[in-house]
Write a structure and sequence with these properties.
Helix content is 41%, strand content 21%. Helix 4 packs across helix 5.
Length: 260
């Protein structure tokens, strides 16, 4: 009896030791939570792709989604004056994003941090912003549009040439970018997304030349493009805020992505 009790104690001790040595089961990583924001109200958010971090303005439609999305590339005025400074001068980025959200699109504008002239870093920031939006749980990654004004229009064109996962491009009054625009136009044969191209006749001559150069190249390569040259006033600053041109944006988005 004494021997049996000793054996039982030894067995229990061995089992306890084995249990302590067995590694605990690993759990799968939990997806990063989506920050809670008030629908339609443009809100500054932090985002990251890999080790790279950034900030942007997000305006989200009402509802749960998944939503189609528009990544909006701002003009050089924000690179120069900052987000708040540009808003004070009349560049209504918030209003543009909110208008997109009211149309049913999750709208996101990355605020570039790479200075005034570093186009390669600008391009990287745009690409990371698109990747971020496509990984959000409330976005349909197959329905992502790129839109940009002035310097942002140039960046939109470059990204549209380099990526094949964009549903459409909206390019507003594209800036020359010290020759970067002309270089990009030489590569439009690689572009596979439909384009809406807008400008106002009172804009600066280099902007108008860019518009005509891109329109001509897209037609020569038999790309899908709708180009509109307004003559109702506003010049370059027409696209600082939602105005009469917005009806064409709405119609184009509805045509390419369906009514939201």
């Amino acid at each position: 009896m004494h021997k049996t009790r000793i054996i039982a104690v030894l067995l229990i001790t061995a089992l306890l030791i084995l249990g302590a040595c067995t590694p605990a089961p690993t759990s799968s990583p939990t997806p990063a939570p989506i920050p809670t924001i008030t629908p339609l109200i443009p809100t500054m958010v932090d985002y990251s792709i890999g080790v790279e971090q950034g900030q942007g303005i997000l305006s989200r439609p009402k509802g749960k989604g998944p939503f189609p999305a528009v990544v909006y590339n701002h003009g050089k005025i924000i690179d120069k004056e900052g987000y708040q400074g540009a808003m004070e001068l009349g560049y209504n980025l918030d209003g543009i994003l909110q208008a997109l959200a009211e149309e049913g699109f999750l709208a996101f504008a990355p605020i570039r941090k790479s200075g005034l002239r570093d186009m390669p870093l600008h391009n990287e920031e745009v690409s990371r912003a698109v990747d971020y939006v496509k990984t959000r749980a409330d976005v349909d990654p197959s329905q992502v549009v790129l839109m940009g004004f002035s310097r942002g229009g140039l960046l939109t064109l470059i990204a549209g040439i380099e990526r094949n996962d964009l549903k459409a491009l909206l390019i507003l009054a594209p800036a020359p970018g010290q020759g970067h625009f002309a270089e990009a136009v030489q590569r439009v044969s690689s572009l596979n997304a439909p384009v809406l191209l807008l400008v106002e006749a009172g804009d600066d001559p280099p902007i108008l030349e860019d518009f005509e150069m891109l329109e001509r190249a897209l037609h020569e390569h038999e790309k899908e493009v709708k180009a509109i040259r307004y003559d109702r006033g506003g010049g370059h600053q027409l696209f600082w805020d939602v105005g009469y041109w917005w009806e064409d944006v709405r119609a184009f988005l509805e045509e390419k992505l369906g009514k939201q």
